[in-house]
Amino acid sequence: MSAFVLDKLCKGCQRCVRACPEGAISMALSLAVVEASKCTECETCMEACMHGAITLVQDVKEDLKAIQG
Ligand code: SF4
Ligand code: SF4
Q1: Ligand 2 center to 13 CA (angstroms)
Q2: Ligand 2 centroid to 68 CA: how many Å?
Q3: Which of 8, 26, 49, 50 has the most CB within a 10 Å radius?
Q4: Residue 30 has what DSSP assignment?
Q5: How high does pLDDT run on average in the chain?
Q6: For 12-27, what is each residue's pLDDT tens digit?
Q7: CATH of the domain at 15
Q8: Region 59-63: what's the mean pLDDT?
Q9: Domain extent for 18
Q10: What is the pLDDT of residue 60?
C-alpha cells in the first residue's frame, strides 16, 4: 500500500509535500505525486490535505506479481 493522489481533487496547494516526513511527495504540473517506494503509509499527508485528495491504495503491480507468481 501507499498514499495516492486523486488528480481531480488535488488543488496543488503543496500542504502534503511539506507534511510528508519521508519526502515522498513532489509536485508534477501543479499536482501532487507520491513516490510509492518512499511512502510508509503514515497518513500524515491525508490529514494535511484539506481537499480529501489523498487516499491509500494497494500497489497494483505487487498484487499482480503475487497472483501471477
Ligand atoms: S495537500 Fe491535497 S490538494 Fe494540496 S497538493 Fe497535496 S494532494 Fe493536492
Ligand atoms: S502516507 Fe506518510 S509517508 Fe506516505 S506520502 Fe503520505 S505523509 Fe508521506
Answers
A1: 16
A2: 28
A3: 49
A4: T
A5: 93
A6: 999 999 999 999 999 9
A7: 3.30.70.20
A8: 70
A9: 2-68
A10: 65
Sort 42 into a burial class: Cβ within 10 Å, 0-12 / 13-18 / 19+: middle
Distance from the CA of 28 to the center of ligand 2, in angstroms? 17
User: What's the 4 CA to ligand 2 centre distance in angstroms?
Assistant: 9
Total domains in the chain come to 1
The residue-averaged pLDDT of 24-38 equals: 96
Q: Which residues line ligand 2 (CB under 6 A)?
A: 3, 19-20, 22, 24-25, 34, 39-45
41 Cα nearest atom in ligand 2: 1
Distance CA(68)–CA(17), nearest Å, equals: 35
Residues with Cβ within 8 Å of 11's Cβ and at least 6 positions away in sequence, in order, are 51, 53
pTM greater than 0.85 (yes/no):
yes
